[in-house]
């Protein structure tokens, strides 16, 4: 939990309290004039109480800062640069920050289904009457709310496009098939809507094409076959790309799915373009 202690135009003081250990970290951010008008520069200092360090409950000083900056989306901003090393912050090397600690759309199916299963498992161990009634009501409510959750367009597609989960996040085969059909269709549309490599809109594009010489027309069929242009099918290409993506091994669960897509954007250009924005215009994974 973050709490603002002091706020000035060029100075911020923030207290972070760990929900797990209840230890505190005092953070200071000083802002400096940037080298260019389009940039912002600041220096951060993090300290913990002496008694926390002595009894071994002190949190990692680096993570509260990094999680705050990462959660704001600043680490994804163009030109973002962090200058930090073990000499400046000795706790960075041992830091295991959860940069995606907030719930993302791609996790929702797994979290909701997991919560439902855990609640059902514990219901059999409850003997107290009032508690049992409450748990029964909770199970019934989750059954109603989560019944067709896997058919939700955004949740199913984001889960499949998350390289950490893919099809394993969905238990119903029909929901998987429908989501894959939508993803494949969107990938095919993205390739069709891409600008053509030659030709421009306007007067030049409107000019009538010159009649092709007969010899060139004869060879055209062979050239189209050799280059694959005559049999190019956006749907088929999208299906091959989706199939290849699904055959990739799962990414580590604690890793950042966006970093995976950054390294694979040239391998799966259609899926990268499809998964970059949701139907509402935001990132799929946020």
Principal-axis shape equals flat
Q: Count all strands and give the number.
A: 4
Q: How many individual helices?
A: 11
Structural class: alpha+beta
The largest β sheet comes out as: 4 strands, antiparallel
**How large is the radius of gyration?**
27 Å
Strand order of the largest sheet: 1-2-3-4
Q: Which band does the percent of strand residues land in? A: 5-15%
Query: Which series of helices and strands comes N to C?
Result: EEEEHHHHHHHHHHH
Low-confidence stretches: 52-57, 195-207, 278-286
Could you give the distance between the termini?
A: 20 Å
- Mean pLDDT, rounded to whole units? 75
Tell me the helix content: 40-55%
Structure notes:
The chain is α+β, with helices and mostly antiparallel strands and 286 residues long. It has 11 helices and 4 strands, in the order E-E-E-E-H-H-H-H-H-H-H-H-H-H-H. The protein has helices spanning 50-54, 62-71, 108-123, 129-146, 153-160, 173-192, 203-206, 214-227, 234-247, 257-264, 269-275; strands at residues 2-8, 11-17, 24-32, 41-47. Strands 1-2-3-4 form a 4-stranded antiparallel beta sheet, with helices on one face. A hairpin with an 8-residue loop joins strand 3 (24-32) and strand 4. It is flat and about 80 Å long. The protein starts with a strand and ends in an 11-residue tail after the last helix. 17% of the residues are buried.
């Amino acid at each position: 939990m973050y709490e603002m202690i002091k706020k000035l135009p060029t100075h911020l003081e923030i207290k972070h309290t760990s929900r797990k250990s209840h230890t505190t970290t005092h953070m200071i951010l000083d802002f400096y004039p940037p080298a260019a008008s389009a940039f912002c520069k600041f220096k951060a200092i993090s300290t913990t109480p002496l008694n926390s360090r002595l009894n071994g409950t002190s949190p990692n000083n680096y993570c509260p800062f990094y999680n705050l900056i990462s959660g704001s989306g600043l680490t994804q901003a163009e030109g973002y640069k962090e200058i930090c090393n073990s000499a400046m912050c000795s706790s960075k090397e041992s830091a295991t920050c959860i940069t995606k600690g907030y719930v993302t759309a791609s996790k929702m199916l797994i979290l909701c289904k997991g919560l439902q299963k855990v609640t059902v498992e514990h219901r059999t161990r409850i003997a107290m009457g009032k508690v049992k009634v409450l748990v029964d009501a909770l199970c019934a409510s989750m059954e109603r709310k989560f019944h067709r959750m896997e058919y939700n367009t955004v949740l199913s597609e984001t889960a499949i496009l998350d390289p950490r989960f893919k099809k394993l996040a969905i238990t119903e085969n029909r929901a998987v098939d429908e989501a894959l059909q939508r993803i494949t269709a969107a990938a095919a549309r993205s390739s069709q809507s891409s600008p053509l490599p030659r030709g421009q809109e306007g007067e030049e594009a409107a000019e009538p094409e010159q009649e092709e010489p007969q010899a060139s027309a004869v060879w055209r069929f062979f050239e189209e076959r050799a280059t694959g242009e005559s049999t190019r099918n956006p749907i088929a290409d999208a299906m091959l790309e989706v199939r290849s993506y699904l055959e990739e091994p799962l990414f580590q669960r604690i890793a950042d799915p966006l970093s995976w897509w950054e390294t694979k954007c040239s391998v799966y250009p259609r899926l990268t373009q499809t998964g970059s924005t949701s139907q509402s215009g935001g990132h799929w994974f946020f």
